[in-house]
Amino acid sequence: MKKKKINKSGTKNINSFVKSVLEVFQTNPFTGFNYKEVSHRLGISDEASKKLVRDIIEKLSASNQLVTIKKGKYQINRENKGYLTQVNTHITGSVDMKQTGKAYVIPEDNSEDIYIAPVNTGHALHGDTVKVMLFPKRKGKKTEGQIVEILQRRKKQFVGTIEIARNFAFLIPDSPSMPVDIFIPLTHLNGAKNGQKVIATITEWPPQSENPFGEVINVLGKPGDNNVEMESILAEFEFPLSFNPKSEKEAGQFSEGIPEEEIRKRKDFRDVFTITIDPPDAKDFDDALSLRKLPSGNWEAGVHIADVSYYVKPGTAIDKEAFERGTSIYLVDRVIPMLPEKLSNQLCSLQPDKDRLCFSAVFEMDNNATILNEWFGKTIIHSDRRFNYDEVQQIIETGKGEYAAEITVLANLAKKLRDERFKKGSINFETQEVKFELDKDGKPLRIFLREMKDSNKLIEDFMLLANRKVAEWNGKKKGDAEPKTFVYRVHDSPTPEKLETFVQFVTKLGYRMKIASRKSMADSFNKLFEQIKGKGEENMIETIAVRTMAKAYYTTENIGHYGLAFPFYTHFTSPIRRYPDLMVHRLLFDYLQKGKSANRDEYEEKCDHSSEMERKAESAERLSVKYKQAEYMLDKIGQEFDGLISGVSKWGIFVEIIGTKCEGMIRLRDLSDDFYYLDEENYQVTGTRHGQNFKLGDKVRIKVKKIDLPKKQMDFGLVR
């Protein structure tokens, strides 16, 4: 709904004002609002008009047109007889399908989800966009409905195991959100053998049939084989398993040498101290840092990014495939690159002792990291040394080692940039990364946790600086001219309702937060993350904190980055692995040459696609971690471990093993000493007879009972 501007004097025709307020509730029938949220939606900022909104809401509540859902929060009264004539009884949304066959439909406006009983899901599947007919609201019950039309199928292919009977076969899907098996006629097996992992598509779903019909399109191999399982995860999210031959052919035609004519067009940094810092197992190096002291005594720090746009031109086969992929995917044991290996690991990779083409952001700064001058443009560099994070960390801690003086300066400048960022309200979302040591067959030998150290932060802060300054260069208004079309990485502020829920949640766990202002809230979040470090509730609080925040995404409409507290932000620093960065490079270079503004609608569509592919890649990466954790625990059935309670539900207690973050469930039905129930309000399960509590964050001893590798699930028992 578009904001309606109300004049600040509050003297607008009162009937029209009442209608505008009521319309906010009518067009969002499953969402609750307080008077401040309604005022925000109407574009009201002055206190007098806000007070008028509050008075109108109270009168609408008194007349039974609104109902109170909590103190100060109201919702349209859907039991009011006049309600059905005021709003549509159908909504459109996406399906969140459960393994039991029931579903929830999430409306397009992200308001309260709609419960769909198994008999009312029709032939809808997880992720489908559907039309739902709403049932009359029952007092005290969740809103229910029936799926009446499938507007768009989300998935075209499904991964699972083939089970062959005498006259037919079924695909048993891997995904727990796929509630039905797929019927496969024997003539459509395409060589698949019983028990093999395959990819299948649905060919038809007759109205009277409980199961869809399908055919096998690819045989992956034997379940449990590392390569088969990783390819299964990729196929589950419909990522390609190989490159298009046309892309490979184009990549093969690039030569190693750089034409002299191209070098002459660029600023030459080959004689300037330059290094890369990456993980030990990295293959593509898309960013490098340079440093030199200027005659003035200031520092020139260069952020040099692989110039992928020199090789990948719009409309080529490589470009089209890179756009479709959207991003590289980082599974536990492999990288599925966005670009063919000839580019990602060779020509574009900023390898040491080789001339490489870059697009650079160069900053003059003093010893306090104050930016005095900036320059953006095409360069050529020659990296002096490839460092990994551990090597740089050792130099930062000891002050000794190769290029120790230069690295120390870079680390000090990065720390000044970081301190200034937090001073201005940046939130420090710092999570532990689960890493694996694998044998030659991909079997996990060890799990360890990698934390962000100063060496990681050194790179992060310079990359954040480049991303921010590139976005500012285009986004900041210059005189009367409107900023040109650009790709921004934005992060919206959390809704007051979600923020309030989160504060209540952490308060019950004994933590305090101040959210009176943007700065006090950021400080509270950062203090909270320090307090929970190493505790049982750490993972859950961090997860819920991230969910409380809006999801970052790509768009041409700049609203700033809330989490970083940057009014302008983009992604410029990783074009080897992120397509939006390649778009930013092309736009920035064109605008530096005084080019015209690009088509906004075209780039907004590309942004939407890039955001969706990023989400899919993140899901695939998480799934590969869960699989490897379950595989690591396979030979540990019967062994005991210390764990921390990471979650509670009506089914059981989730426990995360200390040191590996392997998470499993202690099922309540297996706790035979008492009858336990979920105390949702206090995030614990409680015994009815003896009153024993198992609370979020408690330390417990568990025994590994069962590992379901295909489902990536673990069952634990409690050791008293």
Structural class: alpha+beta
- Show unreliable segments: 1-12
Please count the helical segments: 18
State the domain count. 5
Strand content is: 25-35%
How many strands, what sense, and barrel or not for the largest sheet? Answer: 7 strands, mixed
Mean pLDDT: 90
User: Outline, from the CA principal axes?
Assistant: globular
Radius of gyration: 28 Å
Portion of residues within helices: 25-40%
Spatial strand order of the main sheet: 13-20-19-16-15-14-21
What separation lies between the terminal Cα atoms?
56 Å
Number of strands: 33
Task: Please describe what this structure looks like.
- This protein is an alpha+beta fold and 720 residues long.
- The protein has 5 domains: 14-83, Arc Repressor Mutant, subunit A (Orthogonal Bundle), CATH 1.10.10.10; 88-152, OB fold (Dihydrolipoamide Acetyltransferase, E2P) (Beta Barrel); 157-223, OB fold (Dihydrolipoamide Acetyltransferase, E2P); 245-489 and 565-618, no CATH class; 637-718, Nucleic acid-binding proteins (OB fold (Dihydrolipoamide Acetyltransferase, E2P), Beta Barrel), CATH 2.40.50.
- Helix content is 31%, strand content 27%.
- The chain has 18 helices and 33 strands.
- The protein has a 7-stranded mixed β-sheet with strand order 13-20-19-16-15-14-21. A 5-stranded antiparallel β-sheet has the order 5-4-3-6-7, with no helix packed on it. A 5-stranded antiparallel β-sheet has the order 10-9-8-11-12, with helices on one face.
- A hairpin with a 2-residue loop joins strand 1 (66-70) and strand 2.
- Helix 5 runs antiparallel to helix 18 (600-633).
- The radius of gyration is 28 Å and the shape is globular.
- The relative contact order is 0.07.
- Residues 1-12 have low confidence and may be disordered.
